[in-house]
Amino acid sequence: MNVITKPMADQMQPLSGIRIVDFTQVMMGPCATQMLGDYGADVIKIERIGAGDLSRWSIGDDPAGPQNPVFSSLNRNKRSIALDLKSADGIAVVHRLLETADVIVNNFRAGVMERMGLGYEALHARYPRLIYAEGTGYGITGPYAHKGGQDILAQALSGVMARKCDPSDPLTIYPTSLADYSAGMHLVQGMLLALLHRERTAQGQRVSVSLYDSMLAMQMQEAAMSMMRGIDFSWGALPHNGAFKTTDGALVVVGAFKDNPLREISLAIGLDDLSADPRFCTFALSMQNRTTLHDILRTHFATDTTAHWIAALETRDLLCAPVRSLAEALADPQTAINGMLLSAPQDSGDELGVIGSPVHLSGAAFALRMNPPKVGADGADILAELGYDEAHVHSMRAGGVLA
Questions:
Q1: How far, in Å, CA of 399 to CA of 401, rounded?
Q2: Which end of the chain has fewer CB atoms within 10 angstroms, the N or the C?
């Protein structure tokens, strides 16, 4: 794999000087706080003593244990402090941090932060400039507020899982974490909007996003068609779009932005003009007979290679692409050119290999300032910054308050 290493950025980053107190774990919250850290924020990750973030152990017996690839992919540019949050001293450390913080963020179930005395109302009264951000499964109120949220559940409840290009296809779980990532990016947007609002008003506020809402928002076009026209609309189910196997792989064709896409596809791949066929001569008929149309195309595409058909389709400026594996996409020169491959040595001797930032700013570079931290690795340094002396830190470690 052609991996490039992104250099440290020397210039001031957009979020330099912003401190995030980060209680998040697994994916939704960590992918959000990682993006803030990538652009200069001081992200202080609060972890459980011993186990730490749940994603440190989510893939079983990985040789790196708590520094496994899943955790590492979500937690660069952060510092870790491991505290006993059931102790008064542990909570006291959190409050010392909040005195210096701009944002506190969590993705716990409803009620967890409140039980620690760290709910929104209590903290807003004490720290009016603090932004209180939270990611939930389904929202902070309502009948699902206390249910456990999870990416696959959000796919199911939001209608995403039930939507298929072909009604005969079996139900399946989408294998990439759509809800976690989209909600994480909405959480980033919310925190940045609240920071901008605070610049104008000097007031913090509550920012809340949910997996459920993010999945509904992802279906904004489909939802509008359902609510306004009563139609179950799907871009993937349109008759001139499809995925087809070839002799050596597969490709997708998107018949968009053409007056007569079926005619263009037919001419490109050497078929008689299917748009003149009475079964497909209108869009409505093509939809009605989509299975038959795709059977014809499927049989034809199966006679030659992916590269052959891509070249043929592109001669008529049709949108198409090979269906590739993730490994093939990672090996594509475009991926490296875009700065999306990040490599760096780690203390363990392993090489960090993760995806870089998809946000490219002309005036501020992404920077790998810190590798993903070990559980509690930065606790003593963070406490020293807060004014704790060595004896106090030693006493907290001896008492099990600090890892």
A1: 6
A2: N
256 and 215 in a single domain? The answer is no
Task: State the residue range of the domain holding 281.
Answer: 250-322
Residue 7 is encoded by which pair of tokens?
Answer: 């250099």
- Residue 180 known to be catalytic: yes
Q: What is the CATH number of the domain that holds 43?
A: 3.40.50.10540
* Sign of the CA dihedral with 352 first, then 341, 371, and 45 last: negative
Instruction: Domain count for the chain, please give it.
Output: 2
Q: Please, what is the Cα angle at 210 between 35 and 113, to 5 degrees? A: 85
In this structure, the chain runs to a length of: 403
| Segment 234-287, tens digit of pLDDT | 999 999 999 999 999 999 999 999 999 999 999 999 999 999 999 999 999 999
Q: Helix, strand or coil for residue 351?
A: strand
Cα 166 to chain centroid, rounded: 27
- Give the active site residue among 180, 213, 277, 378: 180
In angstroms, the CA 53 to CA 47 distance is 6
Judge whether 227 lies within some domain: no
Cα separations in angstroms, 389 against 38, 94, 201, 308, 386: 30, 17, 36, 70, 9
Q: Using alpha carbons, select from 195, 251, 242 the residue that is nearest to residue 16.
A: 195
For residue 162, what are the CA distances in angstroms to 171, 217, 234, 236, 399?
7, 16, 12, 13, 52
pLDDT at 3: 47
User: Across all residues in the chain, what is the average pLDDT?
Assistant: 95
Tens of pLDDT, residue by residue over 52-100, are 999 999 887 898 999 999 999 999 999 999 999 999 999 999 999 999 9
pTM of the model: 0.94
H or E, element range at 106: strand 103-106
